[in-house]
Specification:
The chain is built from 7 helices and 7 strands, in the order E-H-E-H-E-H-E-H-E-H-E-H-H-E. It is α/β, with parallel strands linked by helices. It has a single domain, classed as Rossmann fold, CATH 3.40.50. Strands 3-2-1-4-5-6-7 form a 7-stranded parallel sheet, sandwiched between helices. Helix 1 links the parallel strand 1 and strand 2. Helix 1 packs across helix 7. The longest helix is centred in the middle third of the chain and has 29 residues. It is globular. GO terms for molecular function: oxidoreductase activity. Keywords: Oxidoreductase. Belongs to the short-chain dehydrogenases/reductases (SDR) family. This is Beta-ketoacyl-ACP reductase.
Length: 248
Amino acid sequence: MSAVTTGAAPRVALVSGASRGLGLAVAERLLAAGWSVGTFSRSSTDELDKVLENWPDTFSWTPGDVAKDDMRQHVRTLQERFGPVDALVNNAGVLHQELFLTMPEQRIDELLAVNLAGPARLAQACARQMSVRGRGVILNVSSINSLRGFRGVAAYAAAKAGLDGLTRSLARELGPAGIRVNSLVPGYFETAMTSQVTDENRVRITRRTPLGRLGTTDEIARVATFLLSDEAAFITGQTITVDGGLTC
């Protein structure tokens, strides 16, 4: 039995920003387990198009921007296609590296909007629907930058730390409504976002990681789908770090 099989099929998940990388990997694992999955992102990709071809009846994509759109409309669109949302994966985000003293205010606003304000609004839209039904799961994808200080990512780190705070507060507030809320904190793993890391920094990260390597997208996705499953039914309000020991 798959780790995300729950006995209540089909179930519906909204995975933001699943056009590539971790979001798409989580979506594929859910689809393989019998879920219906919807996503939105600013643009499509060849990888996304292939998954849409493979799962035409249970996977949907719409263009959208987590920082600008009405999140309620994305939830309504998914409900009209597949039914009420059972699980949200707040995956959409953007990393920008720049020294804080020279970073334009507009860039700070953009990073906070994409990585914190937008996900908070999406969580609210989904939680309102979930609370009526008395069940649901919200998984916020954070970053080890929320746990450790690194140069050049101050605004991004602040947003992700805020997302972890949102997780803990929502777990308290929404638990009585049957809604679990957790944060997944990936370390450095092979993805388009970490392709921005210089070779020098990559060597430094690998050396400081007890397991001696970067993670893989599938390793992170497996933890994400576990946290969405009924096997994690008593886990809420937690920050689950998957980083090969880098922050231990």
